[in-house]
Amino acid sequence: MHDTIAQFIRDRFAGGDALTFDAPLFSSGIVDSFGVLELIAFLEDTFHVTIDPALHELSEFDTVNKIAELVSRAPRAGAPS
User: Fold this and answer.
1) Cβ within 8 Å of residue 15, ≥6 positions away
2) Considering the domain boundaries, does residue 79 fall inside one?
3) How many distinct structural domains can be found in the chain?
């Protein structure tokens, strides 16, 4: 999961070439608040989860490790609430 997320960020966002799993995405300028929405769409499509941006802080998307943790906790798409 970590490698898949990191590769998407490397491919999609400028400055992600030397990305590590603990690299900060926001303070480094790799991802901005609009990029998070694109990232969420990718995560939902790729991992078949549902992520409501209104229920999460931006800090939960600040590193690949934090994103993977969020995905692992997210409800599966189509699963009953």
Assistant:
1) 28, 29, 30
2) no
3) 1
| Parent domain of 36 | 2-73
CATH number at residue 51: 1.10.1200.10
pLDDT tens digit sequence for 5-62: 999 999 999 877 778 999 999 888 899 888 999 999 999 999 999 999 999 998 999 9
Residue 22 C-beta-side C-alpha neighbours within 13 Å: 0
Evaluate if residue 2 carries a pLDDT over 70: yes
Asked if residue 29 is part of any domain, the answer here is yes
Query: What does the H/E/C string look like for the chain?
Result: CHHHHHHHHHHHCCCCCCCCCCCCCCCCCCCCHHHHHHHHHHHHHHHCECCCHHHCCHHHHCCHHHHHHHHHHCCECCCCC
Dmax (CA) for the chain in angstroms is 39
